[in-house]
Design goal:
Keywords: ATP-binding, Nucleotide-binding, Transport. One of its GO terms (molecular function) is ATP hydrolysis activity. It holds the Pfam family ABC_tran. This is ABC-2 type transport system ATP-binding protein. Helices cover about 30% and strands about 30% of the residues. The chain is α/β, with parallel strands linked by helices. Helix 6 links the parallel strand 6 and strand 7. It is elongated, with a radius of gyration of 21 Å. The termini are close together.
Length: about 300
């Protein structure tokens, strides 16, 4: 299995505060990866480490088999769309494309021009006069025309309205298929990730709590509802992710590879948002990080 990003015990510290700790992930090539977690969980730090904008405090990270940003050739293989999709307000759309061509050795001018036309951007308009959705499309165009092997996006649609968000994600998915990209996308909007991602990483309290293929994660997590029960009484192969109780009833989210045959439980599958929330809920402790093996 080829990895586009591999981190081993990766950590980043600012002063006394760890922004990311003991991060071990292995992202396979050809995936659209959703990176999710609460504010301050370490998502942006991980993405900046992957782009070479930050140096690790501990551990190591490789991207496309090399050290991030170690050479111009390595830089050219990774595209990055930063949070709030920054563009230069005083430059026109055409200026941005000319700048992209000067800065990126793998620049594809045909792709850039065709995409600008397809999304309805006027080459003569200044970026400062564009709507939020148009600026996001311009930033995505710049990232794609670089012709990267890995495209990293940090909360690119957080400030967009639902229509602009849908158009951005649709364009991203079309480009992913057309150019055979690997993508890592961070977002608070799990509903968006559910539509486009086939791999998931959940960061909580600066640590990876969950990582794996979305289909596998959903197939191995279940909600159990039944008479009140101490979670420690469950079989050893049922890892309790979260638990809540009333006087008479327990509701548990568990991970297990085995069928659940206990007739006392009503067993239901989880949606992706339910799964993410179970790992993010600070009221219930996650016993240990979970990384499921990826099957090719």
């Amino acid at each position: 299995m080829t990895s586009v990003l591999r981190a081993q015990e990766l950590g980043k510290k600012y002063g006394r505060r760890w922004a990311l700790r003991e991060c071990t992930v292995d992202i396979p090539a050809g995936r659209v990866v959703g990176l999710v977690g609460p504010n301050g969980a370490g998502k942006t730090t991980l993405l900046k480490l992957a782009c070479g904008q930050l140096e690790p405090t501990s551990g190591g990270i490789t991207v496309l088999g090399g050290r991030p940003a170690s050479t111009p050739a390595q830089l050219a293989r990774v595209g990055f769309v930063a949070q709030d999709t920054p563009v230069y307000a005083g430059l026109t759309v055409a200026d941005h494309l000319r700048l992209g061509a000067r800065l990126n050795p793998r620049w594809d001018p045909v792709l850039a021009r065709e995409r600008v036309t397809r999304v309805g951007l006027d080459p003569g308009h200044r970026a400062g006069k564009l709507s939020g959705g148009q600026r996001a499309q311009l930033a995505l165009t710049l990232g794609l025309a670089k012709r990267p092997e890995l495209l990293i996006l940090d909360e690119p649609v957080a400030s967009l309205d639902p229509l602009a968000r849908r158009e951005f994600l649709q364009g991203l998915m079309e480009a992913t298929v057309e150019h055979e990209l690997s993508v890592v996308l961070s977002s608070h909007l799990v509903s968006d990730l559910e539509r486009i991602c086939d791999h998931l990483i959940v960061l909580v309290d600066s640590r990876v709590q969950l990582a794996g293929e979305v289909d596998t994660l959903l197939a191995t997590h279940h909600r159990l509802v039944g008479p009140r029960r101490d979670p420690d009484r469950l079989p050893a192969d049922q890892h309790v992710v979260s638990a809540s109780h009333t006087d008479r009833q327990s509701t548990l989210v568990v991970r297990t590879d085995s069928p659940i045959h206990d007739p006392a439980w009503t067993v239901t599958r989880l949606g992706l948002e339910d799964l993410v929330l179970a790992y993010m809920d600070h009221r219930t402790a996650v016993r240990r990080p979970v990384a499921l093996e990826v099957q090719r």
